[in-house]
Structures are given as structure tokens and as C-alpha cells.
Design a protein that fits this description.
The chain has 172 residues and is an alpha/beta fold. Helix content is 33%, strand content 21%. The protein is globular, with a radius of gyration of 15 Å. The two termini are 18 Å apart.
Length: 172
Amino acid sequence: MTVDNQATSARTAFLALDFVTYIVDNFSHDATVVERASNALASARAAGLPVFHVVHEAMRDQIHPSLAPAGDEPVLGKTTLGAFATTGLEDLLRASGVDRVVIAGVATSGTVLSTARWAHDVGYEVVVCADACADPDPRAHSALLDESVFPESWVGLWRIARVVESTEITGL
């Protein structure tokens, strides 16, 4: 199978991370991130992708209205920074046959970075929807998602993930 064939046969899931009102309002350098994340979520739903919402356990009932779960989309409560360690997310993804995850979330240097690295380390193809992510520090956000900021850095997510814009979700 060629790389192109592998890319087109991947079963993809969309992960909406920490889109709760308190976190969006207090830990985002970009007030419009919710709009773009909502558009990315709508594109994922339209494409029939499974969607998983992962938020801190204590905030499960505070999901931002623009990214509210639809139908039977699971809301997983976490007690760690990343989406995998305390949620059972990996079991759900494996049971669904998922091998690629698209990540959107707040904060880029927190849950997005932690989740993307874990996903990569356990074998998922990782896509980060850059404009559907935000951080309290715009410099940290840029350093993690824009290779031109620190091209020699090993922390940049472009090293382990495909970094795309929210408008590119439909092409996955």
C-alpha cells in the first residue's frame, strides 16, 4: 500500500479538547478560536467522523455552547493534562477502528501538546487543527504550530503531526 493509499484509508476521529467556557475565556489568546473550532467540528460531523469531547472531570457540564456534544458523542472527563491517561479514550478509539486523530483544543501548550504526543507515541496519525487551537501565550502557540518560529526545535508539533487549518478538515 502506498503512502497516499494509507492516508485515504485511515479511519479518522475528531477530538475537541477542553472547550469549556472557563478555559476558553481564561486560557485563550484568540477570542475567535471557538468559532473556528465550531466550524471544524461541523465539518467533522458532516464527514461522519466520530467525535470525542474531552474536558476536565470537574467541568463536564460546562462545555462551551458552540461546541456542545450532539447525539451520542461521548464527553470524557479527565484528571490529567492530556486526553488519554485517565479517560479510556484509547480503548474507545481502538474499538472504533480509528487510526488518525484530528485535534482541536485549548490550550496548545497543555492539552493539545500532551494529547498529540501521546497519540503519536501509541501509533496514531496525528493532525492538529492549528486555527482551532489557542493558548494563553500566543508565542507558545506559534512555537508549537509554526515551524518557521523555531525550525530547529524538537518540541514543535509539526515534527509529529500534520498541522492544518480548520477549512482543511473536509479534505482528510
